[in-house]
Amino acid sequence: MEIPSQEIHIKIDTPRSSINKKKKIKLADAEPIVLMSVLSTLHAGYFRISLSLCSQALLWKIMVNSHSELPSVVHYLMWYLALTTQVSLCFLYAFKCVFLFDLVKEEFVHYIGVNYLYAPSISCLLLLQSAPMIEPRNVLYQTLFWIFVVPVLTLDTKLYGQWFTTEKRFLSIMANPASQVSVIANLVAARGAAEMGWKECALCLFSLGMVHYLVIFVTLYQRLPGGNNFPTTLRPVFFLFFAAPATASLAWNTICGTFDTIAKMLFFLSLFIFVSLVCRPNLLKKSIKRFNVAWWAYSFPLTFLALDTVQYAQEVNDRLASVLMFMISSISVLIFLGVMLLTAANSKRLLRRDPVLWSATGPKDK
């Protein structure tokens, strides 16, 4: 006698509420993970972006003041864009200091990364100098100036002091093109002090920046170990070679109130170094194969040079100087727009962990 087999289908309905709860739990867990991954990849080198925006805002402010036919709305738009970017980066980096302080300490002892800790202060000082609604004699302006300058002086004491007191941190070992960021910070601060009428403070900051610029420039000119260990992907930072004298020329012009012989000498030096770099495209060929945030190092040095050409054209009042001003300013704006579009197109690649920054703390470690 055969018993007929029957298939039994059991269907278990999962309540939708439990599925929704699981999804909510997963989303809630994912949000802090995404935030922490962003913070772990963020470093002070990203302030190159705000540095370029703030320098462009200052360029447009000076150009609008000297050429009334230019629309002032461009200056306002650039300044508010720079302000938004700077505030966003500062908030993110502040969160990193709170939650991932060990990574910040690694950045502080890195022979390249420590130099970009000046970048937030430089951006804030440029943002303050390009502000359309605050006068330099204002109490708020002076208060903000000291808030932004104190970190620069603190880093100066740490960085410059260890170059001649710490055995493993001599300048001949640690020197690299990014070391000039500290010089630019002091020179931008000197210009801000001169705008407020604090001539003695401006001369102090200017002398501090220029003395160390000469030391760094001579050290790098000799091609000592620090410069030879500079990564290929960071070669756009070579544009800092002409950014430092260009900023010095701009600061000295503000201190003296006129574009005198010293300002012209510094301007011609920066122009010569710029032409020398442009005539050697093979030097930068390997660094432009893949997008990197270091590409923003092309933008702000050119903007500082453009600022010098504007001041030089106003002083000389010559047709050739006006043509030079138009050429350099146009190149500066085009490079800025180009890098901004490339950054938007490569936004996924932008937040990747930098292998250069976390690979070694010094040239010998590599």
TrEMBL record:
Entry superkingdom: Eukaryota
UniProt-annotated location(s): Cell membrane
CDD domains per UniProt: TDT_SLAC1_like
Signal sequence bounds: none
TM region(s), chain numbering: 79-101, 108-128, 140-159, 202-221, 233-255, 261-279, 291-314, 320-343
Membrane topology: Multi-pass membrane protein
One Pfam short name: SLAC1
Entry keywords, A to Z: Cell membrane, Ion transport, Membrane, Transmembrane, Transmembrane helix, Transport
Family classification: Belongs to the SLAC1 S-type anion channel family.
PANTHER family attached to this UniProt entry: S-TYPE ANION CHANNEL SLAH3, S-TYPE ANION CHANNEL SLAH4
Protein name stated in the entry: S-type anion channel SLAH4
Species this chain originates from: Camelina sativa
